[in-house]
Model the fold of this input.
Amino acid sequence: MAAVAVVRITIVLDMMCPWSFIGLRSLELAMRQAPSGVTFEPTVLPFEFDPPGTYPAEGQPWTEYCEGYGAEKAAFLLGQKLPRAFALGERVDIAFSLERRIVGTETVNAALTAVQRHGGSAVAFALTLLSHHFEQLRDPNDPELLRPLLRAHGVPEAEWPAILEPSPQRAAANAAVTQQGRAISGGS
Done:
């Protein structure tokens, strides 16, 4: 049967944001429950809320990151906003861990962009890495984590060095895609 409707969706996704994980998981569940004949063409646009170099190479503990906003905002984030996110996450089978570290996302953003360019499922790729980060406390930029996923999603090995190794070109591409995400989401 031919598709009755094609739904094109652009998803602006920050790999460090628990709300992004909840939203993407919810969208995935909704797409699976769509009526027969409805097909989806999602495009995932990686987005980096904080500029590259904000965090040390090893990352920063989540609680310390929140405390960087001041005592009042940290109390709100850690005492109200995150517990609400965690409760919503449970509804879509996400088991958040507060012990995670927040890291820069330039590498994982480059990998996500490459997966889409080669026709892989950006949604599945992103959900896998979001789960690794938020639930299993793994750095989504870890080359040992990314290599098998890049292979599984059809990214040729010849491209891996440009994805996994820092370079001015990769940084410029990350800045450009982040700016595009800001424009779409209305952020500054």
Remarks:
- Residues 71-91 form the longest helix (21 residues).
- Strands lie at 5-13, 38-46, 60-61, 101-102.
- The two ends are 44 Å apart (CA to CA).
- The mean pLDDT is 91.
